[in-house]
Amino acid sequence: MAGKTRQTCPCVSRKAGRRVVYEKQAEILKALAHPLRVAILDFLKDGEQCVCDIAKHVNSERSNVSRHLAVMVNAGVLESRKQGLNVMYELKALCILDFFSCLEKCLKVQAKDTQKLMKAL
Fold first, then answer.
1. Domains of the chain as residue ranges with CATH
2. What does the alpha-carbon distance between residue 3 and residue 81 come to, in Å, rounded to a whole number?
3. 42-71: per-residue pLDDT in tens?
4. In this structure, are residues 113 and 65 in contact, taking their beta carbons and an 8 Å threshold?
């Protein structure tokens, strides 16, 4: 066996690659997992907005909103740019809104299940 190199199974490297994908997906989900951030994303569905308008819309202090925006920018959910004295934010990938549509469908199913349970009581 001297001189032979050991080869790893290709499925092992694929599994490791999928693990990295799962970790990145979890990072994005963590960045979304706050009610204020969900409200911000909902507001941004109509297009780019400045921090001041986002803060007014979600009824929160600009400093607090800025911290939440930074989390989402770091996770790759939002992108930002300077426009004069303002910082403008927009969704980096509009398909994230499809995820929230799916969540709303899940909530509707849960509500129907709850109604059925209440009728049975």
1. 35-120 (1.10.10.10)
2. 56
3. 999 999 999 999 999 999 999 999 999 999
4. no
